[in-house]
Task: inverse folding
């Protein structure tokens, strides 16, 4: 068999495999659901010990579990497993299995995303790299959700060490001294307060210069507060509130640092958080950008009226009103179309960005308007043909073709979209 014949056979095998596979990476309705809860592993030093205390927080919003009617209200129950494995996932190190029950009197609370049940489980473990597995099973619906991520149990430096940071609720009316974590690390509001705590370990009594900072994602300084802290021997609780933040919505870091005599950081704790616009999906971090992304669902007049508004609060009201009119169920707290539209925009940006943002690409446009295709045929190696893809939408009896004419992965639409295909689904 000559080289050309071998190439043709290999090409044919590759093409069959690529064509037969449904699209990989796109959300599909028959896939297992994404983990709808929030969890966080936080390192704390232990006095006079080489081990750490790791607290794992699990936050379950009320609207993500199934409530059942009872005589005196509504009840939801779920079981959870928090397991720590070694980095290779070959050995179970520690595991906590527990049950939780939520009881509310008001039906409106059962579908509230602002109310959550928070569980905290503590582990004592040696420094190292581990895998954290969390699973939650709703007892009424029998749905099981699973998540997994790697995390580091760091080796704290002595004589001074700072734990990981926990962002907590800024609730002055809360009785007692219990600090309630915001496990999602999402702060909502136009000028919100940001409150956090961490633990500082010192092997002796000393005055320590500290700095608390908010940094952008490039570690550029946004806000800073310096202080002198009279540390006692052992564990000290550090807590601070950044009042009325006047920074744009987006992703940031909060940093707590112990400084030396020259005010250089010698021990740092860093945690990412998100500042979001109130009443909007988590994915929306910039209102002007979100308005621009309405291109595929808004009429020209609707889009212009929102874009031309100069007052921020008025623009936000117009934006929310636009989506309220399209809410399929005004009784529900979440607007499913609103959430789905911007989830698709996010997916397009993550997967179809090339010379421009993914949502502006042809593939991004089709994905946002029609959703994930039922099947994809990929043809990257056809002889005497430029790379192309065929997206099939069975429910529409439609095939949509994209061709990469440049050879650089910039797939352009060749199938004309007309009539009903321009309607968002």
Result:
């Amino acid at each position: 068999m000559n080289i050309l014949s071998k190439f043709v056979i290999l090409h044919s095998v590759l093409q069959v495999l690529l064509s037969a596979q449904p699209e990989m990476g796109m959300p599909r309705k028959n896939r297992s659901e994404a983990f709808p809860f929030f969890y966080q592993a936080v390192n704390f030093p232990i006095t006079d010990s080489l081990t750490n205390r790791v607290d794992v927080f699990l936050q379950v919003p009320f609207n993500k579990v199934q409530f059942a009617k009872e005589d005196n209200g509504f009840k939801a129950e779920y079981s959870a497993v928090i397991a720590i494995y070694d980095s290779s996932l070959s050995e179970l190190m520690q595991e906590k299995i527990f049950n939780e029950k939520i009881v509310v009197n008001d039906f409106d609370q059962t579908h509230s995303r602002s109310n959550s049940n928070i569980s905290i489980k503590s582990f004592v473990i040696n420094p190292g790299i581990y895998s954290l597995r969390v699973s939650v099973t709703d007892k009424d619906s029998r749905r099981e959700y699973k998540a997994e991520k790697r995390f580091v149990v760091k080796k704290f430096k002595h004589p001074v060490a700072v734990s990981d940071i926990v962002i907590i609720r800024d609730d002055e009316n809360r009785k007692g001294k219990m600090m309630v974590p915001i496990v999602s690390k999402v702060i909502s509001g136009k000028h919100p307060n940001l409150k956090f705590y961490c633990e500082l370990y010192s092997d002796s009594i000393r005055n320590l210069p500290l700095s608390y900072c908010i940094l952008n994602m490039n570690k550029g300084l946004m806000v800073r507060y310096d202080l002198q802290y009279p540390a006692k021997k052992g564990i000290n609780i550090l807590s601070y509130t950044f009042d009325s933040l006047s920074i744009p919505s987006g992703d940031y870091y909060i940093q707590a640092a112990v400084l030396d005599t020259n005010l250089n950081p010698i021990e740092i704790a860093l945690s990412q958080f998100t500042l979001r616009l109130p009443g909007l999906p988590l994915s929306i971090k910039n209102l002007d950008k979100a308005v621009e992304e309405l291109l595929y669902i808004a009429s020209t007049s609707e889009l212009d009226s929102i874009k031309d508004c100069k007052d921020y609060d008025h623009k936000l009201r117009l934006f929310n009103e636009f989506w309220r009119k399209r809410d399929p169920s005004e009784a529900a707290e979440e607007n499913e179309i609103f959430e789905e539209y911007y989830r698709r925009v996010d997916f397009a940006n993550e997967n179809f960005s090339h010379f421009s943002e993914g949502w502006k690409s042809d593939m991004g446009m089709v994905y946002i308007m029609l959703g994930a295709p039922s099947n994809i045929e990929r043809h990257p190696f056809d002889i005497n043909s430029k790379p192309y893809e065929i997206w099939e939408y069975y429910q529409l009896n439609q095939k949509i073709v994209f061709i990469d004419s440049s050879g650089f992965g910039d797939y352009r639409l060749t199938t004309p979209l007309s009539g009903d295909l321009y309607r968002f689904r």
Remarks:
- The CA atoms of residues 182 and 404 lie 45 Å apart.
- The domain at 34-43+55-154 is CATH 2.60.40 (Immunoglobulin-like).
- The chain has three domains: 11-29+284-422, 34-43+55-154, 157-276.
